[in-house]
Write a structure and sequence with these properties.
alpha+beta; about 20% strand; 12 strands; about 375 residues; Beta-Lactamase
Amino acid sequence: MDANEPTGSQVKLADLIEAMRKLCIAARPHEPGTGSVTDARGAALAVLTPDGTFLSANRTAAALLGYSNAELVGKQLVEMAPDDCCAALARELSVSAHREFHSFPTVISDRTGHPTRLMLHQQTVSSGETGRSALLTLFEEPLISVPELADATRLLDASARDRLTYLTMGQQKERQRLAAELHDGLGQALTLVKLMAEDALMRIRRGQVDDAAQLLDATVLRIRETIGDVRQICGELRPLMLEQLGLPAALSSLCRRIERSAENVSVMFNCDVDDEDVPEHLKADIFRLAQEALNNTVKHAAATEVTLGFRRIAGGLLMTIQDNGIGYENRPLSTEDACTTGLGLIGMQHRVESHGGTFSIQSFGTSGTLVSAAWNA
């Protein structure tokens, strides 16, 4: 693939999903998911060209690196490394371009210039036409520094070494990201609201009542947006409906909300699972999976009927999301799709498989898509 051509359109959804499955197996060959700590948003994922140019990135990767999704697209990963790490990172990327899977430690500077030690796991995304067309990249933060990691891993067996080396997002880093989001997002929004209110007050004192009224109307809209941001951050930490209603009732409420917000879409919910049947550590991820799948269906599938099923099976739990939409049929993904649908779906896959579950997507031409996830419980 020429790094200068618009390569995002050549990445196919089915290829991304298969690459994610291979990546998880290669990165954690011993007891997948053991010792894994996932942050509120899930795995930090991006699709890069073989020379390290970002084609797309999900929200977690963007937050980790201090950029928006759109700002990362087109950036060179090597240019984000400190000067003394650029050459080593370029060499590792060159190795990744010629291997199916490659893991390596590196240092990347975020937007503020602060260096962060990371483990990068890169899996080639195969294309039927061009072979290796892109690198699916998982960014992970070791909970101990890379030099300490090197010393420790020499003393451990292979299984323990894998668990130690490939821990996902550390809790401390997630606290830092949430603090930055509160400061840079909510903090700035509240400051703007304060300034707008003060401006309106000054206009009232000058007798400019109509101007003040218009400014206060805009202020109210800004406050509503800020309230929505607060709810989103809180929901990412722990969905409120889970706490109040339990998982089955929360899923039912989600279906009703999706149906109300979408035009001409009927959402059915079939469930034979009680809340106490679901292990506590799985509840949030199961809810997230349903939420992401239903939102994807409404946005992209052009479906009129969606059925969310949640039932007990031998030895575990099964969730299915079936729609009668247009399917995806290995369709190429644009860069925007890869940021939303593509990386969103493989993020769902990571959530399921990191807990030892199985995940699959079946497309039926123009007659819909079936998303399935099963967990041992």
